[in-house]
Request: fold
Amino acid sequence: MSAKQSAGETQTVHTAVDISQQATADPKPREKNPKRVAAGKRVAERMRTVREQQKKAAAEASVIIANNNNAKQQPPPPDPAPTPAKENSSPFTITQWLMVGSIFVGLAGIYYKREELKVRAKTFFGEKKKA
Reply:
C-alpha cells in the first residue's frame, strides 16, 4: 500500500481481457446417455397413456352427470296406490314417551306432597320478625 491510499480504499487494476479464444479449440459433441434416453421415452409413453385414460374417465363422468341431471329434472311417476300407514306408528318416539312420563311422575309427586310443601313455604317465605 502506498502512503497516499487510505485504509478503506483498494487498488484496482484495469487490464484488457482477450475473449476471442476458446478454452478448447475443438469442442466435442455432447453424448447422450442411452439409459436415460430410454427411461425418458418410457416415462413419456406412460404419461401419454395416463392422459388418455383421464380423458376417457372425464368423458364417462360427464355422461353420468348429464344422465343424473336429466333424471332429476323429470318428475317421478305418481304412485298407483298410496302406501298403507303402519299400525304401530305413533307421533312420539320411545324417548319422548319416557320424557312425558317423567313429567307426569314429577307432577304427581308434587301434588301428593303439596301440604308438606305449603308448610315449608310458609316457614321459609312467611312471617319475618320485625326488630
User: Anything to note?
Assistant: The first helix runs from residue 34 to 73. The chain has a mean pLDDT of 80. The chain has three helices and no strands. The CA atoms of residues 104 and 110 lie 10 Å apart.
